[in-house]
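Quick one, tokens below. Sequence please?
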């Protein structure tokens, strides 16, 4: 797992081979963060990474200066890996992980905390994938001027969603932006 820019830029972290995860490709992640860098100054932003997996997106957000980053990951081994990474980097003050189901988290945390940036990279086989944007946006975790990005396979289109902003594709990786 490679960090692109920021204080941990160009560093690599080994992910256990036993992980059952499909991390965002470096190519797609680099292009996504190029777009985001033109829209945001990450310094001081709060962000949440839903279905955090290896923690790659959350780590990139911490590296770029977000003041508060939350990872949601229900698989124990993955959450433990992220916790160890947080401890190894001494980022306990700005990065935390919750070992829980994303949908349960969204239901329990309605309007408790709002984030400037919400990212979700669910398993592509997730049966609730089509409903995920509505569930995230109705949970009220997105700040008023915030941005929600969903990573998804190409066979899903969210262009008809009322809060759709744009769609980007990088190889087999698709990102849809919502406001």
């Amino acid at each position: 797992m490679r960090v692109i820019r920021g204080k941990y830029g160009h560093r690599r972290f080994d992910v256990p081979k036993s992980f059952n995860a499909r991390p965002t490709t470096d190519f797609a992640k680099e292009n996504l963060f190029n777009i985001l860098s033109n829209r945001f100054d990450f310094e001081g932003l709060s962000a949440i990474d839903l279905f955090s997996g290896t923690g790659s997106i959350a780590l990139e957000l911490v590296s770029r200066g977000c003041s508060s980053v939350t990872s949601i990951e229900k698989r124990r081994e993955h959450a433990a890996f992220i916790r160890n990474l947080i401890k190894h980097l001494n980022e306990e003050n700005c990065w935390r992980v919750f070992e829980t189901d994303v949908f349960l988290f969204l239901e329990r945390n309605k309007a408790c905390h709002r984030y400037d940036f919400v990212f979700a990279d669910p398993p592509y086989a997730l049966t609730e994938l089509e409903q995920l944007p509505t569930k995230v946006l109705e949970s009220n975790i997105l700040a008023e001027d915030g941005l929600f990005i969903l990573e998804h396979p190409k066979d899903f289109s969210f262009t008809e969603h009322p809060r759709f902003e744009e769609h980007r594709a990088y190889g087999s990786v698709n990102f849809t932006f919502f406001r």
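The first strand starts at residue 46 and ends at 50. The mean pLDDT is 95.
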